[in-house]
Amino acid sequence: TTNEQRLWDSLMQMGEIGGTEKGGCCRLALTDLDKQARDLFTQWCEEAGCTVRVDKMGNVFARRPGKNNDLPPVVMGSHIDTQPTGGKFDGVYGVLSGLEVIRTLNDHNIETDHPVEASIWTNEEGSRFAPAMVASGVFAGVFDLEYGLSRADLDGKTMGEELQRIGYAGEHEVGSPVKAFFEAHIEQGPILEEEETTIGVVTDAQGQRWYEVTLTGQEAHAGPTPMLRRKDALLGAARIIDEVNRIGLTNQPNACSTVGLLQVFPNSRNVIPGEVFFTIDFRHPNDEVLSKMDAELREVTAKIADQMGLQMKFEQIWYSPPVPFDKGCVDSVRQAAMDAGYSHRDIVSGAGHDACYIARVAPTGMVFVPCENGISHNEEENAKPEDLHAGCNVLFQAVLNQACN
Amino acid sequence: TTNEQRLWDSLMQMGEIGGTEKGGCCRLALTDLDKQARDLFTQWCEEAGCTVRVDKMGNVFARRPGKNNDLPPVVMGSHIDTQPTGGKFDGVYGVLSGLEVIRTLNDHNIETDHPVEASIWTNEEGSRFAPAMVASGVFAGVFDLEYGLSRADLDGKTMGEELQRIGYAGEHEVGSPVKAFFEAHIEQGPILEEEETTIGVVTDAQGQRWYEVTLTGQEAHAGPTPMLRRKDALLGAARIIDEVNRIGLTNQPNACSTVGLLQVFPNSRNVIPGEVFFTIDFRHPNDEVLSKMDAELREVTAKIADQMGLQMKFEQIWYSPPVPFDKGCVDSVRQAAMDAGYSHRDIVSGAGHDACYIARVAPTGMVFVPCENGISHNEEENAKPEDLHAGCNVLFQAVLNQACN
Ligand SMILES: NC(=O)NCCC(=O)O
Ligand SMILES: NC(=O)NCCC(=O)O
After folding, report:
1. What are the record keywords, sorted (chains A, B) (predicted)?
2. How confident is the model at residue A405 (pLDDT cuts 50, 70, 90)?
3. Cα–Cα distance between A374 and A387 in angstroms, integer?
């Protein structure tokens, strides 16, 4: 089996790059810290005898050769970018458990038929650059390269520029044959922990729709401007935020709806806000319900803007439909958990993952492990070394299963 | 009378310092642009034969001597800081009409008994540093000097540091006897324009209460976190914003209530907001109603925070009670408008002004002129040269009236 301590030590060492006082991690995509983390991963992989290549989206692949290197590789991996106040496990666990599988193959001098690769996917979080999973999306042909490279952060810097700047704009074309893809990840939700189950066998991922909304009213003085003459863009946004929440609540079970980002202009205490920009994140495992939520949102936002005399720019910037994972890969994960005697259950992923896009071009499976209080996207995110180890062992067996025949 | 063209030209020249593409002005308090504008005012005043002094709050006084310079001066003035997206008239009109009065006294070789001064008051807007009218407040003994110098912007820079940096931390003690104070200002509201009236004789200013609220919930992932487990600080803020609006609407006539500034943490699309900071601005001409609004606000914010499981830090950071201006000064303004044949009416100021604080230590009056569509704190703020001229003529006569006996 894989080495629990080595995996944990690698996670802790990587977590220092961008580590925060509260024990979390702030390592936004394509920052200097992202570069440092990529460099460290590359060094570790080369030390493990791998050859590392980088594609034009900055995706990194560390290859351990197989008996037949003309065969497509079995790939493991996830991302190393984090949220602004993220944790030390989201994403990086999937990358470093991939490396741990390779180190374990080395320990036991195991020769696989297929090459085995550990990978980093660029900008999975969608926090600095929207949408999420951009680079795995390009790999899967969901987005074209130009779209991927032109995604810009709130300061207008593009992924293409930032990849150049940190030296990770690779030579390789984006996209190549993959025998199977596996991603290990913390659950980021409360189910496994509450049910005291070690392994989540991920069968599906829920669908997502992301929106950007700009409301424009009229800036005016907070003192002498009578209430009834106002066009207050923030008041409009406030009412929409409440409706976004209502749509989530009335489409239970399983619907989620969130306004996570909001900016006010000019953002001055005694100025009625003239413009507000905000985002909406809608999720549901059932595409029909997700469409119904979309229709409800469009109706209610238009109504509020209209009633309040606000101009509205409303745009769906991302739609990622529900994903069923590959039956063979899912079975490999379940079998590995059973063989090792871990408690396990089937589970639907609430978050998007690079695996969701890779699933379009290769048989794909995911392994979930519990995280403390179900909390992620928070500096307090935490997971137990033994659970992380269990997930890594399941990953190891599932990969062996796919790489050796 | 005063010189319409000269006043307009000075306003336009000053408006270039921080002038924006949309024809507005962005000249935040104690920035390099504020320094440039102060330097230009100082130069103009010295060219007009004045002696300029600066006090420890950076307030600037340009003195034209009278027959008896042991008598306290009649002071005119306002502020030259602007909102982030402000106009070319708010504040600076009161400063430059003061200068225009001095230039006109020179043109006609008029000797007044009392010295006459044109003044700039530091950080009136309250946008970069809260609260508003800090430096006139120190002059009036409402705030002590230490409080004034320690006001910090959102980056933590204090007024004291920034005054040093731009070279306007003067030698003079803050506060000295004033025979009478007059401030000319655009109305910043719609009344004069709608009634086609040229001069507003300001009898009172309404009261204000400013608050800062921080709501703390729990950051979590927007995907796998079930709706009913969430502690969404932005949803809480949204509900409070709607209640702030309701309190304004249910305390008509005359109540105003505004949330102008709001910041979300960590402000990422797929993270449930863990913390939101925002401000509330309440106004009413009647102090009892303002107190009732305050009580309603405290009740409803506590209730929402409690219902939603959010922690709340709620602080009233500023209370400026309604201000009655000096009967003698108000009469001087009304008389000057009548003598010049300008249409005029009594009016209550919706905005706070430096005059509101100076009124505590000296007889004080204000002159309002119309502004286009009643719009201020907006780059589209505009006023007619002839109205600005009329206000300046009224200021001139009111000052003469107080300075010559
Ligand atoms: N796993 C994860 O946090 N992905 C970010 C994309 C999403 O919001 O689902
Ligand atoms: N006149 C003016 O805009 N003052 C700013 C302070 C306030 O908000 O009333």
Report:
1. Hydrolase
2. confident
3. 14
